[in-house]
Amino acid sequence: MANEVLIPFQDQQKPTSHSPVPEGLNLIVYEQKIVDGFDGIAQTRNTRYSTATFPDAFTATSTVDTIFVCAEDQSQKKQSWPPVEILEAQSSSDKVHVFNSQDVVPSFPSEDSKLRATSLNIRRGGNCPNSLQVLEQLLSERDTLQLHLVSPLPATGSSATQRVISSFGEQSNIDFSHCVYREESTEAASSYIMRSEASGSRTLVNYNDLLEMTEDEFGNIARGFNPDQETWWHFEGRIPDTIQSCIRLLRNVLPKATISVEIEKPGREGLPELAAQADVVFYSRSWAESRGHKTPEQCLRVEGHQKASLALCTWGEDGAAGLSRSTGESIHCPALDKSGRDISVIDAVGAGDTFIAGMLYGLICHPDDWTMGAKLGFAVRLATVKVQREGFDGLGRDMLGTEIGGV
Which of 29, 37, 85, 318 is the S-S candidate for 49 at Cβ 3.0 to 4.6 Å? Predict the structure, then answer.
């Protein structure tokens, strides 16, 4: 390895796709992903890169705190469409980190020591951008939804903000006009993770100087929509108290709003109360098991849903279950390869986010022409396709013709 060098990211000097490597050396980068998979099992994947310039794949991009989707003015459209709907998802800026940097080291270093990392991975994290990316792929020309992003971001002209925007691709139609830009900040939230090969421990150091979006800022956004619109708002349950305030505001400002929430992290206070305020609830397997539930159906039957007309729970390799409170109908859809063969998991990062995107697509774009079983089947199959590939590219294309679901 004498002719190789591993160049780490540092705050003041980040390599880019145009950063030259010292003459006579090859740049060696190992991408290592350690994630909680769709089936709840931690997985590790390594990819080795050797290039003459820093690969574009390692340009740091950003997670976001809030996303929503709204339909364009139907009076300007020739296509037929159900009533105007809005999708919104919110997470906490002090929990979701824009730049996730993970160094793998032989052992945890002692204080004031020097240690060479064996690999480095920098990537975008967070649930909301993953779901938004997949949802955009699923929309067809006849689906007149306009995607918007709402999030606290650094200064408008900062490189960090530009990386957020560019991370969605040149062909994306996402609108960023509703973002809340913190002009006093130039860096986005970051999480630095050091994983020891000797013990397997992971030490996290978080940094974030971005102010969270306030309830007043959120209210100003919500009040920008017509209260006569039928709207759909989806929240990621990271800051339950704040989200409950936002939900109460939505109930008053947009009385026709439908609200869904994701209940994911075990042990987070306020999640049961948050679920009780929603019309649709998404439960994770890890949260359900932390409450003592052995099956997704048990979770859906036992947990109280004061308002929810629909509750869903993912269960990894066993697929997902849904329970309609209005009809009492319980549906289960296993995770199967389309040919019926065993699933070969390649990359489970974001599979749960993909499932949510699939369900929201069915609920928003096919509210009447798909049965609940078809919607659940489509979402499970979408997540199953996702875990069998790296990333999210091509999911929408490969799901064409499968819209009938998998009942």
Answer: 29
Whole-angstrom distance, CA of residue 55 vs CA of residue 32: 15
Give the integer Cα–Cα distance in Å for 68 and 86.
7
Question: Nearest CA to 276 among 309, 314, 323, 246?
Answer: 309
From residue 124, how far is each of 33, 127, 180, 252, 375 by CA, in Å? Answer: 12, 10, 19, 35, 28
Average pLDDT, integer, range 129-142: 85
CATH numbers and ranges of domains, the chain? 4-398 (3.40.1190.20)
Q: How far is CA 172 from CA 81, 165, 209, in A?
A: 22, 9, 28
Report how far residue 87's alpha carbon sits from residue 234's, in angstroms, rounded to the nearest whole number: 6
Instruction: Say if residues 35 and 43 touch (Cβ distance below 8 Å).
Output: yes
The answer to whether 39 and 27 have CB atoms below 8 angstroms apart is: no
pTM of the complete model: 0.70
- 331 - beta bridge partners? 322
Please give the helix or strand (H or E) that residue 243 lies within, else none.
Answer: helix 240-253
Look at 50-64, 132-146, 270-284 and tell me which has the smallest mean pLDDT.
50-64
CA–CA dist 230, 255 (Å, integer):
8
Cβ burial 246-270 (10 Å sphere, 16+ → b, else e): bbebbeeebeebbbbbbbbeeebee
Q: Per residue in 201-224, pLDDT tens? A: 778 787 888 888 889 999 999 898
For residues 366 and 396, the answer to whether their CB atoms sit within 8 Å is no
Strand ranges of the sheet holding 202-207, from the earlier edge strand across to the other edge = 119-123, 99-105, 190-196, 202-207
Q: How many helices (H) and strands (E) does the chain have?
A: 10, 18
